[in-house]
UniProtKB/TrEMBL annotation:
One of its GO terms (cellular component) is nucleus. PANTHER family: HOMEOBOX PROTEIN TRANSCRIPTION FACTORS. This is Uncharacterized protein. Residues 192-255 form the Homeobox domain. It comes from Diploscapter pachys. It is found in: Nucleus. InterPro entries: HD, Homeobox_CS, Homeodomain-like_sf, KN_HD, PBX_PBC_dom, TALE_homeobox. Residues 194-256 bind DNA. GO terms for biological process: regulation of cell fate specification.
Length: 341
C-alpha cells in the first residue's frame, strides 16, 4: 500500500517507488481495485473487532431496527388513477368503454383505434418505469447486502430502504397515469364534441321548419306561439327552434341562389298539397299567416345584388302563390323594421 514506508525487501521505500505505485493504481480498473480492497478487509485480523465496534455505535445512536410497522398505506390518488385506467380499457384487459350508446360504427372504430394508441404508449412507458425502478432497487439491495459483511445491516432495514426508494419512484408512476387519464378524457371529449356538431334534426323536423320558413319569407320571425307549435311538431325545444331560424336566416342571406331553388321546391310542395288535399295538413293551420304569399326580402338587403331579374320570365319565381309586383315595397320596409328591432 502507498502508506507503507518499507518495500518488499524490508528496506526503506524511495520516492520513485511511490510514484510507480501511484501509476499502477491509476491503470487498475475500479472493479479490480474494489475487489482487492474487499479481499484485504475480509482477511484482516481486526475485522471482527471492527464489526463489534460498529454494532455498539449503532445501538448508541438509536439506529437499530425499528419495532414499529413501516408499512405505508397505498396512495389513494394512485388507486383512483388505476381504477379509471381499468374502466377506460387502458390498463388491464382490453375492454374499452364504448363511446356512447348511439355512436355510429365509424365513431366507435376511430375511438377504439385512438384509444389503442394511448394504451400502447402507456404500456411502453409503464414498462420502462418498472424496469428502471426494479434495476435501481436491486442495485441498492445488492449494495446493502454487500455492506452487511462489514457493518450491521438487518434484512428488515434493507426492505425498508427498498420501500422508501419505491415510494420515491411512485411519483413518476402517478405522473404517467395522470397524463394518460388526461389523454383519454381529451380523446373522449373530442369525439363527443364532434358527434354533437354532426347531430342534425330529423328529416321530418327539417321539412316542417323549412316549410314554415319559406311560407313566411316576408317575415321569417315566428312568434313565441308559433315557436312552441313548431317545437311540438318537431319534438325539439323552443330554444332549438329559435337557433334554427337564426342560422337559417344567415345562411339564406349568404347563399341567395341556392335558397331560391329551395324556396321554389317548398312552394311547389305546398301548392301540390293545397290542390291535391284541399287544404293544409292538420295542426299546421295556425302557422300559416297572410305573409305566405310574399316575395323573399333578403335579395334587397344584399349590397351589390341586381334585382332586375325578378321581373323577367324565367327569373325568381315562387309559383303562383307569390306576388312580387304587389308586395316588393312592403317586404323591404317590413324586413328593415324587423332587423332594426
Amino acid at each position: 500500500m502507498v502508506g507503507n514506508s518499507m518495500d518488499s525487501s524490508g528496506g526503506p521505500r524511495t520516492f520513485a517507488d511511490l510514484l510507480n505505485e501511484v501509476v499502477s493504481i491509476s491503470e487498475q480498473s475500479l472493479d479490480d481495485n474494489d475487489s482487492q480492497k474487499k479481499q484485504a478487509l475480509s482477511c484482516h485480523p481486526m475485522k471482527s473487532a471492527l464489526f463489534e465496534v460498529l454494532c455498539e455505535i449503532k445501538e448508541k445512536t438509536a439506529l437499530s431496527i425499528r419495532t414499529g410497522s413501516d408499512e405505508t398505506p397505498e396512495d389513494p390518488q394512485l388507486m383512483r388513477l388505476d381504477n379509471m385506467l381499468i374502466a377506460e380499457g387502458v390498463a388491464g384487459p382490453d375492454k374499452a368503454t364504448p363511446l356512447a350508446g348511439d355512436a355510429s360504427g365509424g365513431d366507435q372504430a376511430d375511438y377504439r383505434a385512438k384509444l389503442q394508441q394511448i394504451r400502447t404508449v402507456y404500456s411502453q412507458e409503464l414498462q420502462k418505469y418498472e424496469e428502471a425502478c426494479g434495476e435501481f432497487t436491486q442495485h441498492v439491495r445488492s449494495l446493502l447486502i454487500d455492506q452487511a459483511k462489514t457493518r450491521p445491516v438487518a434484512s428488515k432495514e434493507i426492505e425498508r430502504m427498498v420501500s422508501i426508494i419505491q415510494k420515491k419512484f411512485s411519483g413518476i408512476q402517478v405522473a404517467l397515469k395522470q397524463s394518460t387519464c388526461e389523454a383519454v378524457m381529451i380523446l373522449r371529449s373530442r369525439f363527443l364534441d364532434a358527434r354533437r356538431k354532426r347531430r342534425n334534426f330529423s328529416k321530418q323536423a327539417t321539412e316542417v321548419l323549412n316549410e314554415y320558413f319559406y311560407s313566411h319569407l316576408a317575415n321569417p320571425y315566428p312568434s313565441e306561439e308559433a315557436k312552441e307549435e313548431l317545437a311540438r311538431q318537431c319534438n325539439i325545444t323552443v330554444s332549438q327552434v329559435s337557433n334554427w331560424f337564426g342560422n337559417k336566416r344567415i345562411r339564406y342571406k349568404k347563399n341567395i341562389a341556392k335558397a331560391q331553388e329551395e324556396a321554389n321546391m317548398y312552394a311547389a310542395k305546398k301548392a301540390a298539397s293545397v290542390h291535391g288535399l284541399g287544404g293544409m295538413a292538420p295542426g299546421y293551420s295556425m302557422l300559416a299567416g297572410s305573409s305566405a304569399g310574399l316575395m323573399p326580402p333578403y335579395p334587397a338587403m344584399l349590397p351589390g345584388q341586381d334585382l332586375s331579374h325578378m321581373g323577367l320570365p324565367g327569373g325568381f319565381d315562387l309559383t303562383a302563390a307569390y306576388n312580387p309586383q304587389l308586395m316588393a315595397q312592403y317586404q323591404q320596409s317590413s324586413m328593415d323594421n324587423n332587423e332594426s328591432n
